[in-house]
Amino acid sequence: MAERIYLDHAATTPIRQEVLEGMLPFLQGGYGNASSVHMEGRIARRAVEEARRRAARALGADPDEIFFTSGGTESDNWALNSTEGEVVTSCVEHHAVLHTCEALERTGRPVCYLPVDGSGRVSIQSAEEAVSGQTGIVSVMTANNEIGTLEPVRELAQIAHRHHALFHTDAVQAFGHIPVNVEEMNCDLLSLSAHKFGGPKGTGLLYVRRGTRFRRWVQGGEQERRMRAGTENVAGIVGMGLAMELAVRDMEADAAHMRRLRDRLEECILRALPDTLVNGAGAERLPGTLNVSFPGLQGESVLLRLDLAGIAASSGSACTAGSLDPSHVLLAIGRSRREAEASLRLTIGRENTEEEMDRTCSALTEIVPELRSMRA
Ligand code: PLP
Asked: Quick one: pLDDT band at residue 256, thresholds 50, 70, 90?
């Protein structure tokens, strides 16, 4: 049987071998609690602080600006809950941001959702109009998890700062694919999740610019400089530090490889199935993301047939898989309900090959017309 082809890297990535090897000592013999004063504890503490330095270096930050969390979701929740005033965000954010905003609205905090254009880019003009002296935080993602569109974060940060508001960006999908540097982006808060770039699941971080006023998040012990309590996930944190270092080291080569494969797959699909819609086309996109709609079909049916053919893809974001609600991102870029329901997301990783793109294209070339003939 042919090897399976994994094309769902926006959902999660395989853990890198070097990362696993770096973590293993802390899952086997090195079980110390990083807060303990004995030698076992000191070994764990050293490893956590080394990972913090690695993470800081990868982002162009200082180690005391890095707070480890349980992932992107927690970091987004923390960022938005730790500030006051109106929230200005976009209508294409991940649910980790959107559902947090809805919860804030229920407590009486005003939230403004910025529109996007047909390729998923937030309009600068609408941000200029929305952000005011009442705004406490502007939160817009660096890159979209469904269609890959890159957002104009530097310009948005400038607008936020002009009104003395904070700027937060969810860079969960961007890191490792495009440069993510907190100085260049001029952000005050930034969220990452390790498993999106070869690290372990359940570990993330929130970057907080020194001097930013923000609230303690989890009450309890003294960990993370008393801002986020709970015994540190030492192995996870070590893995995250290593994965960040490797992602930055390999980014240029990996991004070029993924872009080549994505373009090859996109061209092949459009040649074989010319009525395919490419969602997010026309914008600057993440190099490994391809989101397409096959008009007349359910993305879910294509996904299931691909799975049977040995290919792992996604219809919309993994968090909404299983629910039949059309993607809020695709509706926001102007796709109809039917077009949104017909979508399939293929996200490429560093280990994919040209041959896998060709096999995927051939599989789609068979599956799509077959499903259409069954509907006719
Ligand atoms: N933000 C974005 C843009 C994401 O794509 C994801 C995961 O899909 C998250 C946040 C949440 O990350 P995690 O599930 O690791 O907490």
From this structure: very high
Which residues, including other chains, have CB under 8 Å from residue 139's CB and lie 6 or more apart? Answer: 76, 79, 80, 87, 88, 89, 93, 97, 167, 168, 169, 170
Does ligand 1 have an atom closer than 6 angstroms to the CB of 186? Answer: no
Q: Which fold has domain 5-13+251-375?
A: Aspartate Aminotransferase, domain 1 (3.90.1150)
Active-site annotation holder among 101, 112, 187, 319: 319
For ligand 1, the distance from its centroid to the CA atom of residue 326, given in whole angstroms, is 18
Ligand 1 site-directed mutation target among 75, 77, 145, 191, most atoms within 8 Å of CB: 145
Q: Is the CB of 298 under 6 A from ligand 1?
A: no
In tens, the pLDDT along 215-248 reads 999 999 999 999 999 999 999 999 999 999 999 9
Pocket test for ligand 1, best of 172, 289, 314 (most atoms within 8 A of CB): 172
CA angle 173, 177, 183 (to 5 degrees): 85
Kindly report which listed range (230-239, 266-275, 314-323) carries the lowest average pLDDT score.
Answer: 314-323
pLDDT given at position 295:
95
Residue type at position 181: N
| Average of per-residue pLDDT values in the chain | 96
- pTM assigned to the model: 0.97
- Decide whether any atom of ligand 1 lies within 6 Å of the 173 Cβ: yes
Range list for CATH 3.90.1150.10 in the chain: 5-13+251-375
Q: CA dihedral defined by 246, 195, 9, 321, rounded to 10 degrees?
A: -170
The answer regarding whether domain 17-247 maps to CATH 3.40.50.150 reads no
- Which one-letter amino acid corresponds to residue 78? W
Residue 77 Cβ inside 6 Å of ligand 1? The answer reads no
Cite the residue boundaries of each domain of the chain with CATH code 3.40.640.10. 17-247
| 319 a catalytic residue | yes
- What is the Cα Rg of the chain in Å? 21
* 247 Cβ inside 6 Å of ligand 1: no
